[in-house]
Each structure stands twice: as C-alpha cells, then as structure tokens.
Design a protein that fits this description.
Blueprint (H helix, E strand, L loop, with lengths): L5 E4 L2 H9 L23 E11 L6 H6 L5 H13 L3 E7 L6 H11 L13 E4 L27 H4 L12 E5 L9 E2 L26 H4 L9 E8 L2 E8 L12 H17 L22 E7 L15 H4 L13 H10 L29 E5 L4 E7 L25 E6 L2
Parallel strand pairs: 2-3, 8-9
Antiparallel strand pairs: 1-4, 2-12, 3-5, 4-5, 6-7, 7-8, 9-10, 11-12
C-alpha cells in the first residue's frame, strides 16, 4: 500500500490572488541585475527546480528552524525564490515530515514575508510525500559486514533504502500557483530496482557475483528518494511535473553501486515518457505503464549528472537530453557560473562542458568542480520562452544570496525555464 502523501491547498481567494502575481515584477520599480524578473506574459509558466540544502542532521530540526522567521539560511533561500518567482517549483533536500509541517512553515514564515526587499510570493498548492531516504532496509547494503538498523548509529545511512540518517532526510516538496490534480498523482517510491529490465545492478569486481544478493534485490528500491508524476492544471491544459532526486554517482566503491543507480533513476523517466518503453513500470497503488502518448510534461530535479564532466555513468543524463520527446535545445545559463569556474580553477580547468551552464558549486580540489546537475526539461510540444540559472556575477548585488563556500543558501542554484503551456 502506498504511504499516504500530503497535498495541501489554500482557499480559492488566495489562489486567485497568487495567480495574479504571475505577471508581477520581482521588484516593483527596482532594477533586476540578476535578470530573473517574473515573466510579463500570462501565456508562459515558469517552472523551476532548486536543491535548497534545507536538510538537517536530526529529525524534526527543519520544522523547528522554520517555526519562526529568523533562520538566516531559510531567509536567503526564500529571497532567491522571491526574486526568481517561479510558478511551479520543486525544492530538493527539504526534509519530509508526515504532516507537511516544515513546508507549511516555510510558506508562512519565509515565502509569504518579503525578504531583503523582495516581494512575498504565495503558493496556494503544495505537495510532499514520503522518501526512501533513511528508511532501514534490514540488510547490509554497503557490504561492510554490518547491518545497521538504528538511526544515529554509524553506517545507518549506507544500509538504508536511500541514504539518510533518519526517514525523510533529503526529501522534496513542490510549491505551485496552479492546482495539482491530487486524484491523478502517481508516486513510484516502492518500485524495485531489480524490476527494471536490463537494470545496471552492480557486481562485485573481485568475484563477478552480484553485489546485492537475492534477498537484498527483493527489497531494494530504485528511487533513492522517490519519483513523482504530479499533473498540474494550467487552465484547460495539464502538464505532468515529473520530479526526482537521483543519488549522487559517488560515495561508493569499485562496484559503483551509486553510479549505476543514478543512471537507472534517470533512465526511469526516459522510459516513462517514451511510448511503449514503460510497460514494466508500476506505481505505488499498483497502476502500470508509463505516461500516455501525447501528454505534456516537464522533468525537473537535481539529477546529479553532468553531460560531459563529473563521475557519472557516461550517457546517463543523455538519456533525457537526447530523448526524442524532450525539448533540451536551450540550456539555462548564467554569468556567475562562468565567472566562478574561471576564478576557482582546480578541476574546472579540465572540464569539457560549457561552464556557463553549471548549476552547482562543488569542491574544486580534488574535484569534481562545478557541474550542470539541476534540470528543467519540457516535452517537445512545450515551446520555451527563456530560462536561466540564479547565479549572479560577483559584481551583482544579488551575489550575496549565493556567495562562496560556506554558502549562505546552497551549493546548488535555482534553475528556471519559461514554457508556453496553454
């Protein structure tokens, strides 16, 4: 049985007011040096993804931090959102709690309050659901000879179904100005990795045997967090927001269990949107198959895979960037990313990709350096009308919101894309 999701909706009057904000400027009467002012056309919808690093080390700490409006990191994250003004926003690394308390507090105490001179932003609809992170598997999934099942014990996260020190750590939440069709939401948290045909399940290079034994393969899920299909109603049009946060392709051994899992977590969406390829897929309520042909969609999330650099499986993100149903023709970019790669040096000097398209500021020595890992990818029938990465150049006053390590907000940047969805 599917774990109960939590979807929230405010009153119709608030919804109408929030939708009216779609055409409002990010800063009324003020210049916008970061170039992220809200779009002025009601014909476009701004989709965004932001790994906001609003994760905490202990269960319940995020809600406690958000209980008042005084948390500096949350205020900075909220200001980035207010200045970018997305209509539909995925936030990765936002600890999940069963009642959605943290998400409600973030809206009330941070997004609904103007930060640093930016205008408040209201999201009448939001969605969150359980994550595989920090859920004990009952098995020794990292094969270190110890099975750790108690939170707080060393090695617990490595033996959980998805890495996390407690259930829900590194979860995700969606905020939307448009209604989410709760009756048609599909989640795929329980889908087993071994049930994917041709899955890149790891082998032990020393023995050639499967890294996970039969009993482990019977419980190990594909999603390190979850995969969600959220139908968003934009007027008479439905756009399926397909969100996830695959595991980083690192923190493993020569078996490359995380590298391979990352590849297949990305492959899930490739199969889901390709007619005839997703017949093996089942959701958490037992429904089978992928997205119906012709449906509009936007794939969003921190996918932890760069097209040309980093440690991922070659071609992992190419499964989406080169997909016949995905419109990846106009990658979002920023001046700040290019500037950071040049000034920070290190691993960045050997990168093959365009540094202006980077979305995350990672360690430069020994690496992996700055990478493009966060994506907003619409379907082919959705025309784009601009996009960007919130990474202001150092001369921009708003660069105070991104900064350098230790970052005032996150090591990732908000990525947005305007699409014509009506």
């Amino acid at each position: 049985m599917r774990s109960p999701a939590r979807s929230f909706r405010l009153g119709a009057a608030l919804a109408a007011g929030a939708l009216a904000l779609t055409a409002s400027p990010a800063l009324a009467g003020t210049a916008d040096p970061a170039g992220t002012a809200a779009h002025a056309s009601r014909d476009t919808v701004r989709f965004a993804t932001f790994n906001a690093s609003l994760n905490r080390s202990t269960e319940g700490q995020l809600a406690a931090d958000l209980a008042t409006g005084g948390n500096a990191q949350a205020r900075t994250v909220a200001e980035i959102i207010q200045r970018s003004r997305p209509d539909v926003l995925l936030v990765n690394e936002f600890d999940h709690d069963p009642d959605g308390t943290a998400a409600a507090l973030f809206q009330r105490n941070y997004l609904s309050v103007g930060q640093g001179g930016a205008a408040p932003i209201e999201y009448p609809y939001r969605y969150t659901a359980p994550s595989n992170t920090g859920v004990p598997s009952g098995f020794d999934l990292n094969n270190d000879g110890r099975t750790v099942t108690e939170p707080g014990q060393p090695g617990y996260g490595d033996d959980a179904l998805g890495f996390g020190e407690f259930p829900g750590q590194y979860g995700m939440v969606v905020f939307s100005r448009y209604p989410i069709d709760e009756s048609a939401v599909r989640t795929f948290r329980d889908f087993r990795w071994a049930d994917m045909p041709g899955a890149l399940l790891p082998t032990d290079p020393a023995t050639g045997e499967p890294f996970y034994d039969e009993d482990e393969r019977a419980v190990l899920r594909l999603s390190s967090k979850s995969h969600w299909d959220l139908p968003v109603r934009i007027g008479r049009t439905t756009v399926h927001l397909l969100v996830s946060h695959p595991t980083p392709p690192s923190f493993d051994g020569p078996e490359q269990r995380n590298v391979r899992r990352n590849h297949d977590e990305i492959r899930f969406w490739s199969d889901y949107v390709r007619p005839g390829a997703g017949g093996y897929i089942y959701d958490d309520e037992g429904g089978r198959g992928g997205l119906r042909p012709g449906e509009r969609f936007v794939i969003a999330g921190d996918l932890n895979s760069d097209p040309r650099d980093g440690n991922g499986e070659p071609g992992a993100i190419g499964q989406l960037l080169d997909h016949p149903r995905v419109n990846a023709a106009a990658p979002p970019s920023s001046e700040g990313a290019a500037e950071a790669a040049a000034s920070q040096g290190g691993a960045n000097t050997s990168h093959l990709g365009d540094p202006a398209q980077d979305t995350a500021d990672f360690a430069d020595e020994p690496g992996p350096g700055n990478l493009r890992v966060d994506y907003v990818l619409p379907s082919r029938q959705l025309r784009t009308a601009g996009g960007g990465v919130f990474w202001p150049a150092s001369a921009d006053p708003l660069s105070r919101l991104t900064g350098e390590y230790p970052f005032p907000s996150s090591d990732h940047r908000l990525v947005w894309l305007d699409v014509r969805a009506r």
